[in-house]
Amino acid sequence: MIARAVEGSGIPTITLSAALDITELVKPPRAVFVDFPLGSLVGKPFDIKGQINLIKNALKEGVNITKPGSIVELPYFCNDDLSPQTCFECSIDS
Amino acid sequence: MSPRKIIEEIKKSFPNQPPYQWSRFDSSPWTPISKPLSKSRVALISSGGVYIRDEQEPFNAEKNDLSFRIIPKNISVSKLAISHYLKHPNAEKDINCIFPIERFRELEKEGFIGGLADPCYTFMGRIFRRTALQTEMCPQLIEMLGSCGVDLLFLVPS
Questions:
Q1: Which residue among A76, B21, B67, B143 is least packed, with the fewest CB closer than 10 Å?
Q2: With contacts defined as CB-CB under 8 Å, which chain B residues touch A5?
């Protein structure tokens, strides 16, 4: 909702999303979804390369959104148990 | 692997309460992006409850804290702490997991973005007072961003 307000004021926004179902309802102007857990959405601790890649991918995909309310899903996944040790798979490398 | 159904997970976490009524919209506001990333001043905001230890008040870690914290872009992350309802061990170890301030400084240095706006902003999620969020918090943030010459805002939920 903050993204919606800021966008409405004239500043473009990109929202990283951890909850696809909620994002689909709220419809921020540009959203990039990664299936990582809240509390660790940017990636594993101290994984500088992984965190940088995620942010770069989110920014690149976000700025390319042309339809308001679109959600781009990036291929970042967690295992079902969300354990920090086994989580954070990514099938892209930028 | 299909994305987790967060709304269902939340319902199960609060079985004795009526389902939360999420905000729903049919359309989205839109401001076209006018500059490439390499020339854009990007502002960073996180709902991770991050604050400057010993200098700023912690957030109300339960809910409905409508305040922001102003975080200078070049602050040492060792000075930052978290007051948040969700205590994830990864964020406690490396604050960049929820508030990637060091990563954005690196992207600025690399030239991937034109610059990281100064300051960065944080707040605490779990704001159920939606009217206050829209009438108090958002105008305050918009005013702060307006004074920084921001070209793009990047939001990280937590």
A1: B21
A2: 29, 134, 138-139, 141-142
- Per-residue pLDDT of B42-65, as tens digits, reads 999 999 999 999 999 999 988 899
Hey, is the C-beta of A50 within 8 angstroms of any chain B C-beta?
no
Phi-psi region of B33 (alpha: psi -120 to 50; beta: other; left: phi over 0): beta
Asked if B95 and B157 count as a contact pair (C-beta separation under 8 A), the reply is no
Nearest to B74 by CA among B110, B102, B46: B102
Q: Tokens 């679109």 belong to which residue?
A: A70
**CB pair distance less than 8 Å for A38 and B157:** yes
CB-nearest to B88 from A35, A39, A56 is A39
Distance from A48 to chain B by nearest Cα, in Å? 7
Q: Which domain holds residue B124?
A: 35-156
Residues in a beta bridge with B155: A15, B45
Alpha-carbon span A20 to B97, nearest angstrom: 19
Q: Is pLDDT of A85 > 70?
A: no
Q: What confidence tens digit (pLDDT) does each residue in A46-74 have? A: 999 999 999 999 999 999 999 999 999 99
Does a structural domain hold residue B139?
yes
Within 13 A of B107's CA, how many CA atoms are on the CB side?
32
**B158 in contact with A, Cβ within 8 Å:** yes
Count of structural domains, chain B: 1
ipTM entry: 0.94
Helix, strand, coil abundance in chain B, percent, nearest 5: 30, 15, 50
Q: Does B118 map to a domain?
A: yes
- With contact defined as beta carbons under 8 Å apart, do A7 and B30 qualify? yes
